[in-house]
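Re: export button greyed out
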Amino acid sequence: MDNRHLIAKRAARYFKSGDVVNLGIGIPSLCGNYAQPGVLFQTENGFIGVGPTATGLMVNEGYYNAGGVPYLPAYGGCGFDVAMSFGIIRSGRMAATVLGALQVSEKGDIANWATPGRAFGMGGAMDLCNGAQKVIVAMEHCTKDGRPKIVKKCDLPLTGLHCVDHIVTELCVIDVTDEGLVLRELAPGHTVEEVRTKTEAELLVAEDLKEMCL
Amino acid sequence: MKSKVTTREEIIASFKDGQIIAIGGQTGRSMPERLIDCILESGVRHLTVYSIDTSDPGVGIGRLISAGVIDRLITTHVGTNPDTNEQIQAGKIQVEFSPIGSFIERIRCGGMGLGGVLTKTGLGTVVEEGKQVIEANGERYLLETALRADIAITRARRADPIGNLAFRGSTGRASHPVIATCGDLSIVECDHFCDLGEITPDEVEVPGMFVDMILA
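Workaround output, generated via the alternate export path:
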């Protein structure tokens, strides 16, 4: 399993049957492949009950998710406009959202919508950070050039303040707590020292540190 | 009662330089492509556009971006269209980013006779800059003010002669039903033009009173 799928598989373990969940684009969008039955997926352009990817004759222009992938509507699904969609998100009805990130701070701040010289927009991410019951960041642990993405303080424009609950990377699972970042799980073959080297923020290590549950 | 079906020529003549045009749709699918053709054919420039995103190059709003006819953009995300970012960086397009939930509520306010909404989304971020923070019921909120357009263009799955609209799916719905309410002139294109009564009263999502012109 490549890193992206490993991260998605672990992140999907936070969902339980009956949850309605929103997935961001990139690694988060892969979580749908690993969720247990009974989890319903929302797409922010207006649908709950996003099913498998549609192919061939089943592709319909009216049924694309926010990442631009055509899907089959699940039984029991429902369509609505974007105002309703974000009413659902802001009002705390979304059990969880999984987002990608450029940086996450030790206070649980997240930055994921702009880099110097390239502002691509926050889309729905600020509303999700504000309203989702649980904010899960699913991302590679470091940038492509090896710099830490889990930092003391974000220096990129923020998407949300103190909103991240869990960080899942190819190396580990970290919880954001009032005491700081707590390392909970290590992916097979990785060590606490390695994670500390690749993380700028202070890390506490859980007493019951476990191997990543996959 | 007069049918709202309008000729392309008359629709093209509605567009003027410098107008604010709100455009329905998201993710570059189920966009009002035939109405975007009309904007391009009208030759208008210096537009302000309200839209959730700017589609992909060559699709939907991406075609207006490539044509260089947009001066100002209120949007939520342009990551799918590198041309937009290029024009923003070059100073050709002035952009205001709004979180989608706030963007669509501002549009809804514009259409529903409201001045604005209170939301927690964006507190503590750059979205807060220049906006009023209001305390209500003991909680802090940002005031997001209404957006109204000169022309709103949308696409519906079905329309009848008096402009009752029905939609389908997520991309087929997206911002269309809300955008259709926010313009002084509301123009819709439909995939299927229906006889009166063919869209049953319970299926109508946007009442015909919000629609002025139909491109059948």
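Chain B touches chain A through 48 residues (CB under 8 Å). The button fix ships in the next patch.
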